[in-house]
Each structure stands twice: as C-alpha cells, then as structure tokens.
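Board notes (copied after class):
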Amino acid sequence: MRQRPIGTATRGTTNPNRLRRMDRWIAAAHGPALRRADTPVAVDLGYGAAPWTAVELLARLRTAEPRTAVAGIEIDPERVAAAKPYEREGLTFVHGGFEIPLAVRPTLIRAANVLRQYDEDQVAEVWARLRSRLAPDGLLVEGTCDEIGRRHVWVALGPEGPRTVTFATRLGSLERPSDLAERLPKALIHRNVPGEPVHAFLRDFDRAWAAASPYASLGARQRWIAAVRAVAGDWPVADGVRRWRQGEVTVGWDALRPNSP
C-alpha cells in the first residue's frame, strides 16, 4: 500500500511567470548536468493551485536540454486533478510530497515557496529527505519569492548538502539590497540579526550599494554590478558579471551558514 504523502499543503498561491528568475538561473547553472543525464527529470514540488510554474519550468529547462521532462508534485489531490488536463509529452502531475514518488531519481527538485510555513528546525530534515531522492548529479533548489517574482532568494543543494545562496531581483524595484531580506528562505530568514553571517552580508551589500550611487546615472544595472564587485572583495561570490547583469548574485553557503543555536 502506498504511503501517505509527507508534508503539508501550501496556501497554493501562484502566478504565471512568478518563478522566472529561479528558472533562468537553474537553466544556466544546471544545464550541463541535465545534458549529462541519461534521463533528465525535474520536479516542481508544491506547484500550488494552478499548474503554471510546472508548465513554465518545462519550457525553460528545454532551452538547456530538450530531453528534459518535468513532474509537478502536489500533496493536495484536488490540485493534481485540476492540473491533469495540462499534461502533455514531457509534463506530468503526481500526487505526493517530500517522499518524491517517482520511479527515477530526478536531476532537479525545485521547491519554491514550500517551506515558509515550516519551523526553522524542520528545514534540515526536509532538505536531507529531498537530497536523498536526487540523482548523483542532481540539484535541489529551495527558496522564496514575492507574489509576482520581483524578489527571490534561494539555496542550491547537491546530494552532499548546501552549496550556494542566490539573491535575485528586478533592479528597477530595489531601494537597497537588504530589501531582499524579506524573501530569505526559512533556513535564513530568522537569522537576519546582528551577529549572523547573512545579516553581515546584507549590511556590507547595502554599504557597497550606497558607495556605488554615482553609477545610478548609468542605470540600476550598472550600480548593482559595481556593488557586487565591491562585496566580492570580502565575500565568496560564486558567479560573474554575466549573472550580475540579470540582477543576481550567488554567494557560497559556508559564508552565510547560520551560527549554531
């Protein structure tokens, strides 16, 4: 007998194009792994009350690897039933939860806006469960964004554990980098306090942003690039100008890892 799905239903809020920043980053950063996979399968975990994010994930990942298939997994059976009419070649919808009830180990699990309702001390267990379901070259991307996808922060994890944290924003809507703090994933959002590494990073980023104000006359993108270049002198920034131009910056997890309780 099949086990009961593991997890709790989310509010289900979703909007078309909400996860575009995360999707584009995944396609760029994880595209080589998708191309290496014998069977490249991606999971949109907890896609919500409508199937748009899974539909969009398939389209974006297929720009990196046309063989990619996407499985949308939802713990609410009514949401799965509502999504079934959208199935097509390479896109399926499955009833399940953190156990990831697929016959193959996925090359990607994306969990966006899923863990916000969980306690911080539950995150490590969920991460470990999802990582255990990954293919050897797989990636778990877990994070949070606002309702229309202007601000987004996510953690990328391999089977061995967390690797990086990415901050992404629509630059025209940004007053200062620390505005992104409200979208920190559950593992970090309660750690944005003095003495914690993520707080120190956002403080330094705000200072670099202020110092880069002369670049504002050239546009928010140039100011962002100048600010990221400045913080990269003190923090392990893991990407380059090509990604910075998208309103992104990726930092090594070890530098932002929360202090022990």
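Comment from the instructor: The first helix runs from residue 20 to 36. The beta strands are 41-45, 69-74, 91-95, 108-112, 139-145, 151-158, 161-169, 248-252.
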